[in-house]
Structures are given as structure tokens and as C-alpha cells.
């Protein structure tokens, strides 16, 4: 009987796995390459280079925004929306549609890279949350938006929408962080029990996320991450990958509905470069906002949605897939810290740039009460999620694989101390 060469077998298997990983990486990069080539041909053929250069600020914004879109449960809109609305004074409706359009490219490329690289994605959750998010987006866009005004602004008070989304993001990140303070944590590499309650919960997350996306350009990813990671205890890396795919789907819907069918990307200029029509309808500037009427045009730097979009396309085509790749390489704990840091930045910028927080006492009371209620509710849901959602319980006698356990650095240190004591004896 011949002896097996174990080292040779392992070496061949490792080489085969490396070759497969390399082919998948090349396949993922080809998506970004194709997008870049198409963009170059389009911009050059249509002579849009001046428009790209005039809107350079969008490219700079999305250097960070696209990385965030691929690496966290907060899409590129989580960066673009506050920067545009709070820092550049771009109307929130323009920032929302820009977020949806640019995420179609960036998060679409990241989603394809995730699928090509065969990263774990909770497909069943997408099957539940996807249709619900589509319905939520339709309700938010067609019911809660004024389509008789340029770029279909929200009929809801803008400051309350911004603050509510910021508070939800911060509460979700903080509750996730609290769960990861323990040294040894059982995590779910996949959700094995889709009870009726859990399925309804995911559907509600998709519904509310779709509504939020229709108003601020992001949210379906945040709500799905909340349902999967905070409530179901799914691994954050799997939760992020799944949320990226969902947000890519909803962003594509948003681009088609608002950008194409409603014509938000169809921008026309006058001789001095001001925007004079959107979707073929003449627009004019008024003190209380743009309107469908002839008169003074709109500032291109604030209303050239198409220019902002094409300026950022090549950036997000590479940045979002890069963020998705980095997420696959770091630990869940570091990913949670990154999500926490981004949420903190969102809170700080909201406090600085939403001036109503310094003049509207009702808004301040709402913010304080809402964050307290959100934190208490999410924390209670997290602690009682197994019973409430009828999930599979993890007990002390449950056999777990390595993929089902998250080990913190202090636990490793304790193991090292135990090993030293057992080997050297007490001192």
C-alpha cells in the first residue's frame, strides 16, 4: 500500500484555491474596468469633460463615500447626503437622487464583486427584504414626495428627516458595539431559522428602509443590517455584504424612477450656464426653492445633478469594490468599530450643519427623546431577540464551529496567560 504524500496533497489544494481566488479577483476587477472604459468613451464622445471638471467636488466627496458604501452598512449616500446638504447647500432632493444614482454604479459594482468572489450573502433575507423595500420606496417616492416640484422634494420636514436618520444610524451602531464588548461572542455565519416573526421583521426592515431611501437616498441597507446583525446576531461581515446587495438593488430602482422616468438627470442649461429645465420642464429659482416656471435659472453648482453624477462615476466604480474587499479581510470587531466611527461623524456633522437644532426647541426635544427611545428599544430587542423572533437558541452546551465564534483580543490574552501558568506553574 503506497504511503500518501500529505504535504503534496495539501500543497496542490492550496495552489488550486489560490488560482481560483485569483480568477475571481480578476473577474471582480473587470467590472470596475468595464465601467471606467464606458465612462471614458461616453464623456469623450459627448464632450462632457468641462462638466466633469466643473463638478470635481462630487468626485472628492465620493472618494470616501464610495469606500464607505462598500465597507459598511451605510451606503455612499450616508456620506454624500450630509456633505451635499450640510456643507455645500445642495438641496436635499438633489442630494437624495444623486445618492441613488451614484450608488447604482458604486454599490452595483461592489455587489457584483461580492457575488463574483463568492462572499457569503444571506440570500433568503434578500428575498424577503427586497420586495418589501421596493414597496417602501414606491410609497415614499410617490406618496411622501412632491413630484410637481423639481427633483420631487419630500413633503416631510427636512430637518426632522435628517435628524431621524442620523439617530437611527447612531443607535444601531452603538447597540452593535455593546454586543461586541464581551470577550467571547457567538455569532451566526448564516440564519438557520426563518420563523414567521423573523420573516415579518425582515419585511418591515425592508419596508421602512425603502421609505428612508426614497427620502434621503439611503436606508434600506441600514435597516437590513439592523435586522440581520443587531436582531438576528448575524456576523457583521455577512450583514454588510447582504446590505450592499440590497442597497444596489434599491438604488437601481431609484435611478430608473427618479433619474430616468422623472427626468432628474435630463438637465438643460442657458447661455450663462444656469440650469433652465429638468426633465424637459422649465424651472426657475425662487427664494423658497426651485419651481417649474420660466425665469432666473438654477445655479449649476447646486442643481446640475447629471454633472455631479458623471463626475463621480469612475471614483465609485473602484472605491466601493475596494471597500467590499477590505471588509472581507478585517475582523467583525474592527468592522463594528468602523461603523461606530462613521455613525459618530454623522452625529457630529448633523449637530454642526443642521442649524434648526440651535433654533427649534421642538426639534431638540424630539432628538433627545428619539435617541433615548431608540437605544432602549434596540437594546431590549437585542437581549430578547431569541424569544421574540423565535430564533435558534445558542446555549452553553451548543457545539460551535470557528466561524460561529468571535474571539476578542482580551480573551486571547487570557488564554495566553492560562497557557503560561499551566506550563510554568504558579509563581
Verbal overview:
This protein has helices at residues 6-45, 49-54, 56-71, 77-87, 92-116, 123-143, 158-179, 196-216, 220-231, 236-261, 300-303, 305-329, 332-353, 361-383, 385-389, 409-424, and strands spanning 184-186, 267-269, 275-278, 281-282, 405-407. 69% of the residues lie in helices and 4% in strands. A three-stranded antiparallel β-sheet has the order 2-3-4, with no helix packed on it. A two-stranded antiparallel sheet has the order 1-5. A hairpin with a 5-residue loop joins strand 2 (267-269) and strand 3. The protein contains 16 helices and five strands. The longest helix has 40 residues, at 6-45. The protein starts with 5 loop residues before the first helix and ends with a helix. The protein has one domain (10-394, 403-422). The protein has 427 residues and is mostly helical. Mean pLDDT is 82; it is low at 418-427. 44% of the residues are buried.
